[in-house]
Amino acid sequence: MPPTRAELAAALALRNRQGIDQHLRALERKGRILLEPGIARGIRLRGPAAPRPAVPAPLPLYGRVAAGLPTLASSNIEDELLIDPALFRPAADFLLRVHGDSMRDADILDRDILAVHRTAEAANGQVVVARIGEEATVKVYRRRGALVRLEPANPAYAPLEIDLRERACMIEGLVVGIVRAGLPQRR
To answer: Would you state the pLDDT for residue 1?
Structure first.
């Protein structure tokens, strides 16, 4: 039998059931469910049997990014975490554990796990994982012509300035989310 709104709120650890109602109405607008007004368990699936959601593949978690190329080699994987990549926009391709506090004012703290979307391109103002030579870092990206500036979000640190005519700077990906809570690990 379908759950009540109270059961859904409890399962999702929500105090306000209004959010549950909004999600249910959105699913109804998309044609996925039918809501029967005035009935506690009045949630019905529409159409043929709903497909079971696919279990997401675990995302690789890289520890301290090791020196050496390639930076994100499979030998550098510390763990794999069961996090649905689709929770992030754009979808996450890998996870990276933060070491240091250079991004603390952007609410990226030491030991946080960053969800990263793999891409070689970034727009000014985006938080990126960048590789300079054999070192990787997480910073705010700014580019003007051949000059790249990787800015920390902590005044105790100086920005990194790279002239691309003299030195390479590769974007490994965009930071699309932060995870702080303990998560189930793949067994």
So the answer is: 79
**The pLDDT value given to residue 64:** 62
- Residue 156's pLDDT is 95
pTM for this predicted structure: 0.66
Active site amino acids: 102, 139
**Domain ranges, ordered by start, for the chain:** 5-45, 59-179
CA-based nearest residue to 94, from 70, 108, 78:
78
> Is the distance from CB of 98 to CB of 112 less than 8 angstroms?
yes
107: left (phi over 0), alpha (psi -120 to 50) or beta: left
| Tokens of residue 85, six digits | 């990549």
Asked whether 151 and 142 are in contact (CB, 8 A), the reply is: yes
Q: What is the CATH number of domain 59-179?
A: 2.10.109.10
Least confident of 8-22, 56-70, 73-87, 118-132: 56-70
